[in-house]
Structures are given as C-alpha cells and as structure tokens.
Design brief:
274 residues; mainly alpha; hpI Integrase, Chain A; 2 domains; three-stranded antiparallel beta sheet; 56% helix; elongated
C-alpha cells in the first residue's frame, strides 16, 4: 500500500483569529467562529445545537450536544467563553426578536445557527452556506492560501483548525487530559472529575480563548510579557552563578603550582564549549 503523505498543518494564533473576526461582517459566521474557537467542538456538532441546548444560567455557559449529533455517538457538554455567549445571545435574540428565556421554551428544537425560525433545516445545509462565506472572508483578508501538493484543493485555514487551537491552548494552560475531555475524546477511563472542577479548569484558560474583549486581550499580553521577563531574570541569575563558579575555579588554579601552568585561554574555550 502507498504511504499516506502527512503535510504540516497551518498554525492559528490569537492574532490571526482576531484578524479573521474583525474582518467578518456576517453576524452568523462571526458567532460560529467564536464558538468554534472557544469550545473546540466539531463544525457539525456546533451546527446541531438547538435553542434548548444552551444553558445560559451557568458560568461558563454550557452547550449540550446530544449523542445523535456527536462523532462518537456519546452525548457530552461543551463550554464557550463569555465573549462567545454574549455574541450568540445577541444573534439568537435578534433572529426571534425575543429574550433567550422565551425562545428556549417557545422554539426549543430550532437550530441555533439556522437563519430563520424553523426546526426543519439540516446542519449540513447550514454548513455549506457558512463554508462559502468563510472562503470569501479568507480571500478578502488574503488568508485563503491552499495546501501544497498535487491535486490538493483544501485551504490551509479551515473550520477544523480552530479545534486544533483550542486543544493546544487548553493543554498548555491546564493539562492534556482536560484538553482531551474538551474535544470529546475518550482518554483514560480513570480520569473522572466532577463538573465543578471542569468549570474551574475552563475558567482558568478562558482568557486565552477570548479575542475581541480588549481588556482581556491586554491582560493576557501583560501576563505573557511578565512570564518572558521572569524567564530572562532566571537566565541572568543562572549565568551569574556560572560566572561566579568560573571565577572560583580560576582563583583556585592560580594558587595551585601545577594547575597554574594550564593556559587560562585554553580553559576558557573549553568551558564555553561545554
């Protein structure tokens, strides 16, 4: 059998996601991207969410995905950022011209991302429209590059890439088991934590999944800069200790009649190589 060619994936950064969102003028597409980039859900799973599946009374906001709509056929919950929920709530209420509480009880089975009031439309139909709109958006901001390779037509940036971003971000700021839980993957059968703990873990990394709230974005930037400064200070301290040790060795050698014959310049070169 021929070997499967595995090509390097594009990497999404907060700046790239922010640029995409700022250039987006379509409310539905913008909300969809915000949910993908904060929940890490698959596209069809996200588009299958109904009005009754939004639990806006909790913080962070929880979305329920029924088993029929998941890839693994196992129901699960997903969290979205406060920023994503704010835009999602605004989008749904403007569509029905009602409060979200009333919408959940009056239109429970309508899909959240349908563009009109109905429970008849299928998620795959919504996906086709959003996919075309996303392609146009990427072209407008010159991010529509295709993957390298003969016959490869896929773009480097896709909806699925937001899922990669969430996985990586959550793994960095919490742990790998929780990042697998976020994606709905089945990892260790022994990793079983209460819901309150999953909320706390998500709250911990929510600021890294926020893109348009500039107060949060600035705080994340300051946090990153402070960590860099801390690393630089640690490095300077380590170098100071190395230099002190070096001075002690040179001083000891100069006092020893045998070691004093060793050329100091040669010793310096050897220490630098090490």
């Amino acid at each position: 059998m021929p070997k499967i060619l595995r090509r390097k994936k594009e990497t999404l950064s907060p700046k790239k996601i922010r640029d995409i969102l700022l250039a987006c003028t379509n409310d539905r597409l913008k909300v969809f991207i915000l949910v993908l980039a904060s929940a890490g859900t698959r596209s069809i799973e996200t588009l299958s969410i109904r009005n009754q599946d939004i639990n806006f009374e909790e913080s962070p906001t929880k979305l329920h995905i029924i088993a029929e709509n998941t890839k693994t056929k196992q129901e699960r919950d997903a969290y979205i950022s406060d920023e994503a929920f704010k835009e999602l709530k605004r989008f749904v209420e403007s569509k029905y011209n009602e409060k979200l509480e009333n919408i959940k009880s009056n239109y429970p089975n309508d899909l959240v991302f349908s563009s009109w009031r109905t429970d008849k439309i299928q998620p795959i139909g919504i996906y086709g429209v959003l996919h075309k709109q996303f392609a146009s958006l990427l072209s407008k901001i010159e991010m529509a590059q295709r993957k390298d390779g003969q016959g490869v037509q896929r773009r480097k940036i896709s909806f699925h890439l937001f899922r990669d971003y969430v996985k990586t971000t959550v793994a960095i700021h919490t742990n790998s088991d929780f990042s697998e839980w976020i994606l709905g993957h089945t990892s260790s059968t022994y990793w079983n934590i209460p819901e309150e703990t999953t909320k706390e873990l998500y709250q911990k990394c929510m600021k890294y999944l926020t893109f348009l709230d500039y107060s949060t974005v600035e705080s994340v930037g300051r946090d990153f800069e402070s960590k860099l400064e801390e690393q630089e200070n640690r490095h300077r301290e380590e170098m100071k200790q190395v230099n002190e040790k070096y001075d002690q060795i040179i001083d000891a050698m100069s006092k020893n009649p045998i070691l004093s014959k060793v050329k100091i310049d040669v010793l310096k070169k050897k220490i630098k190589k090490k």
